[in-house]
Amino acid sequence: MDQQQQLEQLRTEIDATDGALVELLLRRRQLAADVGKVKRELGQPLYVPDREAKMLEDRRRQAAAVGLSPDLIEDVLRRVIRESYQQQQAADVHLQNKKIVVVGGAGALGQLFVRLFESAGASVQVLDKNDWQRAKEYLAGADLVLISVPIAVTEQVIVELPELPQHCILADVTSVKEGPLQAMLKQHKGPVVGLHPMFGPQQQTLAKQLIVVSHGRGQPHYQWLLDSIVRWGANLQEFDAEAHDQAMAFIQVMRHLSTFVYGVHLARERADLEQLLELSSPIYRLELMMVGRLFAQNAELYADIILSQPQNFAMMRRYLQRFDTVLGELEQGNKAAFLEEFAEVAAYFGEFSTDFLNDSQRLLSLAGDTHKVR
């Protein structure tokens, strides 16, 4: 057998092995679907962090023992697990006795929650601005009223709500918490809770997604809502409304505004995006993708987030001043000042720097694998 024949034979064996992998993945998907069914019957959450972490650690050890890269096995399994969660996200009927009204349910995020509640068997009514004259009728007997409207009108909508049943939960999914929460507490004497989904409406499943909870009043009466969210796989983090809004100044406002200005600068400078992509390694492509991603979404939403808390503008001014100071030092060729500032900030990040480096490296590996040449 010559080398070319040997190469073809090896390729044939690789193809057969890949085919066997496909069959194994199919079997795993079927098992995951069965697991999802049993979980629903037991009322268990879609995502169980401890179980997933142990499984990944076990497979990493197994891979190392046979001479395979543990990182490779973890990367493959994480992708497979993500598909499994989508398999398990079937109809989970546990809210069949609940009447839920989603105010703003025709919007993108509202539609997501309408779908989730309907899949859980709840009777769901969408109340939009065109139906407001029938609000009292729609809200009669409601077990939950969920406010999912633009930030700029959230408090106004809350104030204009008719009287709700005493047992009814009043909740919102706005990215600002303190103002809406206080408005809901004033408007409704029953259970009140503020929610902030830290994800967009494009999600197919809530598995591993973060939702911030700002408690208002009557937690025992709205616990069933939180339990349902956990059952769908989300991770709940409890935060005081004021502390939440302060953190969002950095997590959302600062990042969105910085990204917006970066995009504006690229556009005004007429930068050649095709050329930038051709010259970019995975990390720079990711950064460019995050900028472009902003401009593929709803401008009103980002404007509302940035404008929702004008007190953050003072912090943004300090950011600009620091940018100007560093730029001035660099213009003067003051490398020592840059290095000193770098060391100071590196000390501030501490061990987070290493964690962020490792986490980002996994993302970069995926970005390199999925990059499409234009």
Gist of the model:
By secondary structure, the chain is an alpha/beta fold. The protein is 63% helix and 10% strand.
DSSP summary, beta strand count:
7
- Indicate the proportion of strand residues: 5-15%
Placed side by side, the strands forming the largest sheet appear as 2-1-3-4-5-6-7
Largest sheet: 7 strands, mixed
Reading the helices and strands in chain order gives: HHHEHEHEHEHEEHEHHHHHHH
How much helicity do the residues have?
55-70%
Subcellular location: Cytoplasm
Domain Prephenate/arogenate dehydrogenase: 98-360
Protein name: T-protein
Domain Chorismate mutase: 1-92
Description:
- Helices cover 63% and strands 10% of the residues.
- The protein is α/β, with parallel strands linked by helices.
- It folds into three domains: 89 residues, Chorismate mutase (Chorismate Mutase Domain, subunit A, Up-down Bundle), CATH 1.20.59.10; 141 residues, NAD(P)-binding Rossmann-like Domain (Rossmann fold, 3-Layer(aba) Sandwich); 90 residues, 6-phosphogluconate dehydrogenase C-terminal fold (Orthogonal Bundle).
- Strands 2-1-3-4-5-6-7 form a seven-stranded mixed beta sheet, sandwiched between helices.
- The mean pLDDT is 90.
Task: Record keyword descriptors for this entry.
374 residues, alpha/beta, Chorismate Mutase Domain, subunit A, Rossmann fold, 6-phosphogluconate dehydrogenase C-terminal fold, 3 domains, seven-stranded mixed sheet, 15 helices, 7 strands, 63% helix
